[in-house]
Amino acid sequence: xxxxxxxxxxxxxxxxxxxxxxxxxxxxxxxxxxxxxxxxxxxxxxxxxxxxxxxxxxxxxxxxxxxxxxxxxxxxxxxxxxxxxxxxx
Length: 89
Prior knowledge:
Layout (H helix, E strand, L loop, with lengths): L16 E9 L2 E11 L5 H11 L5 E5 L5 E6 H13 L1
């Protein structure tokens, strides 16, 4: 149900904007890429796949929106499984 100009929370993820990418292993952030402009959130997946190929197993990949909310959270192993498909797209 929608009231006035309120949109579902997932809808803001479909918009263009800057996103932050973070790799963390053992609760320590190892790589950060800030303010990457994406036309929409689906454009993040090839970047996630590329980061997964460079990271060690057991690492988490998080993508944050401009409000600091996590919009993608995945492990390196899962991202690597899909990386061939993601990088080919």
